[in-house]
Structures are given as structure tokens and as C-alpha cells.
């Protein structure tokens, strides 16, 4: 049989500084992976929300495959935002590793001819890192210059530059506030869209889902010389799907601050709920083929992969 190597597109969006700890494969099979890269004493644990969630995958082959590889984003500790207590895998990952401020688990199956399943259970503490909390306790986060254009964040386009100039208000704080209000109020939420549109497209169409809200806010911030990036992960409070994205902006007085410009998430310019699980800080993740959350490759007959996110326990 002639075998082909395929790159498969998984589900698209619904829409920190740490010392890493290397974990060997022998510690992960059917056991708890304890990730302790940031001392939990670094922040107030009494104000966190504890969540246990499960991400499950079902791999269904149409025939037989010599090999199936799946790479999945998993959460890591992020100071003042989240602390991972443990992760349990139903199937042993070949590798758990950090790359470009993200954490990944890689799985391989060989000689696949029947459906395979994978469950990843995570217990995590979540903390507010919005403007209100940062105002009360400014962070000493390291500045990182994130001002360049990238795919879907078309900073250099004339329309983006012109709109950014209109929203500039003299100080970074007031400018970010102006940008947030513009994106939140002037863009219509049109429901989940499986395709990424980008900042320029949403500025022209004035409609999109969370991806477009975030792309536009980040592009307008960067066009005004303010470092910003898109954060991707899950929210436990959702109307459509749990996959979601929000924005992180660097303000010198406060450090890196989170904002959710998408309407309907009970967030404001100054406050966000403690239900945001961060997975990625990279809008375009070439390690996932520039897709989102996970991706797979197979050697053999076509396969299908389905994933599901379930909140098992929520302790506010």
C-alpha cells in the first residue's frame, strides 16, 4: 500500500517569566504530572478559583495507519494568572516540552486500525490579572516589545494606521481604553466563524467573533506603539464554545494586563472573571502549522479526530 503524509486542519478558534521543569516520559503514563515552575507562594492563593477540566480526543481511522501523531497545547504556570496543580493523561505522551512560552504534549500511536482515545485531565487555579487587580498591586513584569505586524495583525496597513491615530489619546493608558471601547462597541459579534479573518478585514466589515475582536485590538495597540498580543485558551463561561481568545497589553505602570474585548463575556475594561485558562501566547503558532489548540498528522489511510472540553469541577 502506498502511504501518504497528511497535514490535517483541526478546529479553528471559536473564538511571564518562569523556570521550566523537564518531565521525563516515565513519569506521565496514567499518572499525575506535577508542574511546579513558579512557586505558588508568589501570589495569594486565597483569591483563586480552582477548576478541574477534561479535554478528550477520539481518533477514528478509515482503514489502517502506520502512525498517528497528535500535538496538544496544555496549560503552564503563568505568574499572577494561573497555577497548574496537576495533569493526568490516560495515554502516555512521548514528550512534554516548552517552546516559545507555550507548553505542548506530543502523542504517537502506531499500527492504528481501531478507534483510539485520549483524555487529559487538568486541575488548575485561576487568578484575576485585570486592570483592577494590577492597579491595586502593580506587577514587575518584564517589558517585551511586541509591535510588529504578523499574519492577521496587519499593523502597517493604512486603514489600521488611520484608525489607530484617531484612537490615540495622549497616554498609553488612555489610548488602550479608547481602543478597547472602539472594538467592544463598534464591532458586531456575528457568531462563531471557523475561518480567521484578521484585523484589517474586521475593521472593514465591522463584524466577527472573538478572534477578530482580539486581532483588531492588538493591531490598533501595536500601531500606537503599545506592546500587545493575542492569548488563546478556554473559558469556563461561554455561550457558544469554550475555545476563546483575549488580549494582553503591556502598560508600564501595571505590567502585562488582560482584556477581553469580545462582548457577552461579563468583562469590562477594568475587570475580567477568574475563568480564563491560558494555553498560548502566539497568534500564529508554526509548531501547530498555524492552527489552534492541537494538530495531527497521519501516515496511511485518512482519519478523523474529534475533541471535547468538559468542566468537571468549579470551586470559586
Q: What do the pLDDT scores average to?
A: 86
Largest sheet: 5 strands, antiparallel
* Cα shape: globular
Strand percent estimate: 35-45%
Look at the helices and sheets and give the structural class. Answer: alpha+beta
Distance between the termini: 54 Å
Tally of alpha and pi helices = 5
Give, in spatial order, the strands making up the sheet with the most strands. 1-15-4-7-6
Counting DSSP E segments of at least 2 residues, the number of strands comes to 16
Topology as H/E string?
Answer: EEEEEEEEHHHEHEHEEEEEE
Low-confidence stretches: 1-45
The radius of gyration computed from the alpha-carbon positions, rounded to a whole number of angstroms, is 20 Å
User: Which percent bin holds the helix content?
Assistant: 10-25%
Question: Short summary of the structure?
Answer:
The protein is of the alpha+beta class and 316 residues long. The chain has helices at 131-136, 158-167, 172-186, 199-205, 210-223, and strands at 5-8, 32-33, 49-61, 65-74, 82-89, 95-99, 102-112, 116-126, 188-189, 207-208, 228-235, 243-251, 255-259, 276-280, 294-300, 303-315.
Amino acid at each position: 500500500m502506498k502511504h501518504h503524509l497528511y497535514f490535517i486542519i483541526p478546529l479553528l478558534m471559536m473564538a511571564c517569566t518562569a523556570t521550566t521543569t523537564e518531565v521525563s516520559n516515565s513519569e506521565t503514563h496514567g499518572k499525575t504530572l506535577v508542574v511546579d515552575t513558579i512557586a505558588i507562594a508568589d501570589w495569594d492563593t486565597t483569591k483563586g478559583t480552582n477548576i478541574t477540566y477534561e479535554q478528550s480526543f477520539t481518533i477514528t481511522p478509515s482503514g489502517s495507519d502506520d502512525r498517528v501523531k497528535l500535538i496538544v497545547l496544555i496549560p503552564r504556570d503563568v505568574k499572577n494568572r494561573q497555577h497548574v496543580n496537576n495533569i493526568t493523561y490516560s495515554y502516555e505522551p512521548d514528550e512534554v516540552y516548552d517552546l516559545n512560552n507555550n507548553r505542548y504534549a506530543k502523542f504517537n500511536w502506531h499500527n492504528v486500525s481501531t478507534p483510539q482515545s485520549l483524555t487529559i485531565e487538568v486541575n488548575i487555579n485561576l487568578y484575576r490579572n485585570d486592570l483592577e487587580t494590577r492597579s491595586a498591586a502593580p506587577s514587575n513584569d518584564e517589558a517585551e516589545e511586541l509591535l510588529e505586524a504578523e499574519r492577521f495583525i496587519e499593523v502597517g496597513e493604512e486603514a489600521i494606521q488611520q484608525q489607530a491615530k484617531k484612537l490615540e489619546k495622549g497616554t498609553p493608558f488612555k489610548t488602550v481604553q479608547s481602543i478597547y471601547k472602539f472594538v467592544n462597541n463598534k464591532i458586531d459579534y456575528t457568531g462563531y466563524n471557523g475561518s480567521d479573518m484578521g484585523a484589517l478585514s474586521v475593521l472593514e466589515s465591522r463584524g466577527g467573533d472573538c478572534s477578530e475582536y482580539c486581532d483588531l485590538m492588538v493591531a490598533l495597540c501595536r500601531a500606537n506603539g503599545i506592546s500587545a498580543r493575542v492569548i488563546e485558551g478556554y473559558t469556563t463561561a461561554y455561550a457558544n464554545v469554550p475555545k476563546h481568545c483575549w488580549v494582553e497589553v503591556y502598560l508600564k505602570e501595571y505590567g502585562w494586563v488582560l482584556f477581553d474585548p469580545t462582548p457577552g463575556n461579563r468583562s469590562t475594561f477594568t475587570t475580567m472573571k477568574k475563568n480564563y485558562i491560558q494555553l498560548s501566547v502566539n497568534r500564529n503558532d508554526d509548531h501547530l502549522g498555524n492552527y489552534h489548540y492541537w494538530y495531527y498528522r497521519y501516515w496511511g489511510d485518512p482519519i478523523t479526530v474529534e475533541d471535547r472540553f468538559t468542566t468537571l469541577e468549579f470551586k470559586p
